[in-house]
């Protein structure tokens, strides 16, 4: 079997990673990392009129709890001290502070978060939830960001989503990147008599990104902020390729029709107006897809 020089260099990187911790840290994107350089905690003062909107039981408890499922960097993941951090954690903490509450993340299996909201085990879902019509049947979503899917490649490569057949593409298992992007593209390749895509499914986004960094994959398909985060952590080894597509809103899930939704939205609106919302996202390298107004199920709240 013949290998190109590029493939050989990738193999050397993978071998070096296996042989030494130093080489591993040079190749891996976001494993066991902390806050971004220059990060500062944003903790606004409570706003009386927003405090008055908080449901009585939550106000008496003094804590806003959120179900979350790390790792899904930069939205939520554990740092080297095992603390759950990320842009959603920062946003939720600032929202809770504006509501006069403390914030408590609770790690859960992703599939259990929405049922936990229904049962009252947690107040909010904060785990990279896409606000969809199906989910809106039972929950409301306070939308805080629009994100789409984008591909990454090794720096200097010429990978195109327009010519995907025969490529190996890393994805996080069961995400939109796998179910709605890469696998349908592979099926199309087969239907056209071309070589299928080798879909490399990983349990976490960081593992999928690492596969690209180490050369185990030709490309990495992910939500655009996830890819952007991986690029910043990869020390110039990978880069985005192509445009963002299939943009959709990310939202915090709350019980359907609950007064908690308007309270969370009012707190988010306050953060937008003070510039603290933009500051939080900017610290995590997110500059695109920001909302101009807090939304509930994509509808702007009344100011």
From TrEMBL:
Entries under Pfam families matching the protein: SBP_bac_3
Keyword Signal (UniProt): yes
InterPro entries according to UniProt: Solute-binding_3/MltF_N
Gene source species: Corynebacterium gerontici
Xref: PANTHER family: ARGININE-BINDING EXTRACELLULAR PROTEIN ARTP, MEMBRANE-BOUND LYTIC MUREIN TRANSGLYCOSYLASE F
The entry's keywords: Signal
SMART domains reported for this sequence: PBPb (SM00062)
Matches recorded under PROSITE patterns: PROKAR_LIPOPROTEIN
Domain Solute-binding protein family 3/N-terminal, chain residue ranges per copy: 63-288
Signal peptide boundaries: 1-25
Protein's name in the database: Glutamine-binding periplasmic protein
């Amino acid at each position: 079997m013949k290998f190109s020089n590029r493939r050989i260099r990738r193999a050397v990187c993978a071998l070096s990673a296996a042989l030494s911790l130093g080489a591993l840290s040079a190749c891996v994107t976001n494993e066991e990392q902390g806050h971004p350089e220059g990060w500062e905690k944003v903790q606004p003062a409570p706003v009386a009129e927003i405090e008055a909107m908080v449901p009585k039981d939550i106000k008496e408890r003094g804590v806003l709890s959120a179900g979350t499922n790390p790792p899904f960097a930069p939205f939520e993941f554990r740092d080297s001290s095992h603390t759950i951090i990320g842009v959603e954690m920062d946003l939720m903490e600032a929202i809770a502070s504006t509501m006069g509450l403390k914030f408590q993340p609770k790690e859960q299996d992703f599939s259990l978060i929405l049922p936990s909201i229904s049962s009252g085990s947690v107040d909010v879902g904060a785990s990279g939830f896409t606000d969809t019509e199906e989910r809106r049947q039972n929950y409301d979503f306070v939308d805080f960001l629009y994100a789409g899917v984008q591909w990454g490649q090794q720096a200097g490569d010429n990978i195109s989503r327009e010519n995907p057949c025969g490529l190996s593409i890393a994805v996080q298992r069961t995400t939109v990147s796998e179910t709605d992007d890469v696998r349908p593209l592979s099926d199309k390749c087969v239907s056209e008599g071309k070589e299928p895509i080798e879909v490399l499914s990983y349990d976490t986004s960081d593992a999928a990104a690492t596969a690209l960094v180490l050369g185990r994959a030709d490309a990495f398909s992910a939500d655009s902020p996830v890819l952007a985060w991986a690029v910043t952590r990869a020390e110039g080894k990978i880069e985005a390729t192509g445009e963002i597509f299939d943009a959709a809103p990310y939202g915090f899930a709350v019980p359907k029709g609950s007064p908690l939704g308007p309270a969370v939205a009012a707190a988010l609106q306050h953060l937008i107006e003070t510039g603290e919302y933009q500051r939080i996202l900017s610290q995590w390298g997110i500059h695109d897809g920001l909302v101009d107004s807090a939304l509930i199920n994509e509808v702007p709240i009344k100011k």
